[in-house]
Amino acid sequence: MTDPSYKPDHAGIFLSFFYRLRGRGLKVTPQQWLTVVEGLARGLHGSSLVGFYSLARGIMVKDESELDDFDLCFAAHFEGVEAEVAALHDEVWKWLENPVPPFTIDPEWRKVLDAVDVDALRAELARRLEEQTERHDGGSHWVGTGGTSPFGHSGAHPGGIRIGGAHGAGTAVQVAAERRFQEHRKDLVLDTRQLGLALKKLRTLERVGPADELDIDDTIDRTAREGGELELVFKPPRENRLGLLLAMDVGGSMWPFKHLVDTLFSAAHQARHFKRFEHVYFHNCIYERVYGNARFSEKIPLSDLFRRFDRETRVVLVGDAYMYPGEITDRFGAIDWTERNEKPGEDYLRRIRDHFKRCAWLNPMQKESWSAPSIRLIRQVFPMYPLTVEGVGELAADLAGG
Amino acid sequence: MAQDFSRFSGTASYITSPELRHAVNVAAAIQRPLLVRGEPGTGKTLLATAVAEDLDLEMIEWNVKSTSKAADGLYVYDTVQRLQDSRFGDHDVSDIRQYIKLGPLGRALTSEHQVVLLIDEIDKADIEFPNDLLHELDVMEFTVTETGDSHSATHRPMVIITSNAEKELPDPFLRRCIFHFIEFPGEDLMTEIVRVHHPAIGDTLLEQCLAKFYWLRGVKGLRKRPSTSELVDWIGALLAAGIQPGHLATEIPFLGALVKKEEDVEAVSKAARGGATRWPGDDD
Q: Does A75 share its domain with A50?
């Protein structure tokens, strides 16, 4: 740093911000931090916090999924810097900084809301909270518990409203507090495309079949070695050999997750790289058969399923795995009385697992609620991943292996 | 260069947000490549053209394909041509230089003037592709191993890279870039954008078009949401057909300009009727 305008103070003021970003899991490196300091020294922030915001964001954020975390850190860190924002109720800010603990819409929360004395702000907050409940229906809602939804680290939260009340782009903290990039987070699912990209990891290209593709590089190489005598080399083409079987739990407690399952189905269906993609349905647990349609009129006995799909087919089961444990552990425990399962559900699940080389379970419920007895039982049979962009990515990487 | 700061301000036909302008200027000032991401159709590729036009610089475009190799961007040694020439003996094949063909990056680094280099859709190529570019983008020089000639840029090209997030880019590469995510334009910015392309459009019609457009984008289960460029085309079609504002209230004419997939057309009509209740893939 030979620039005469450089003052060490620049770094000191904002250094704790750098550590806050790291603390939140953003992989920011000292090298990037130095680049920010260099930018500051050159005055690229235009002496304003808004300028600093966009300078720091450009240099330290590397993916749109990180933008929301960056915004959260920024809003929390620079809260005192702008007077208007500093006037906000402490609790809202405390909450902004620490969105992890579960949160329910209860009278306590109402009190906090009331403490924020701007009516319009409260209305906006309430409206957003409503939206958030809807979204939870698609992602993290305990069925039958009515109005309270467990609030996870990934959900929308009141940091999402324009804290400060003024309309339009104002101060930097307001911009950050708007959290416009929430929908690009990777621990939420909102978009078919995102899921499709995550599923792409399920691609294992192999060279198979007859050698009928001209290998130009090798041909040139050999020809050159032969002193110009043409020597053609062929190789087998590369193709994806994986077939995917999607088994979906439908009805009952799965209704709130319908949109989410819909999105997953679209993504898998759209993914052109599978050699074969098929889907079947079940309810809660699988016994003697699965079904070809969601009305359960087309029955497919497991033995047929095993004939139709060989060991190499990758199987993804989608369901909340939330049921009475007896449906998994007891003979004749099936929720549907026509099922009459001779063996406990567990046995059938294990048969599926043993027939296929790789299976996994996707659960649309939040990980926090995976301690339920039935979910624990299923996890003893199948590896379970959350139905989020991240989760599907992990699942795909796991299933892709040979 | 400090004097580069605040140079880019958008052009008459390319409307930008202040944040994007700032990102471009920061990248120019600290001489880092600018990595632009965003939904398809938000004008990532056009940005480079706009920057070049605004700063009055030549633009060199490198369209990355799945088969692209980083080294090809610098130069290609046309061995086949040389072999061919040697067979007939009517060329002097001893001068290798005539078989060295510079690629887009090579041309940008050897140009006598500063240029804007667009590396379009870098994520299309192999995962190693960006890593292989690191050195050249850092030091802005390269050596042709076959001839031993080394080239060093007299003017650092301004590098703009676009990505569709098809593949993850390697961290070391990302760390060297200034990242900007082009947000989908809100109604205000969109109004401005449409006006640039269709100055003659009436206020009421524009307002209604945008209302329909954002409603369409919000339809659940859509596999491909309509983009800015599709909106501009659609409005062009509406204007050409002389559609009156009242028309839009009941139907969406030329829906095909906005929604391109059969399933999506179905989803839209379902949403218009009010909600779907079927399980995915359940056709009967």
A: yes
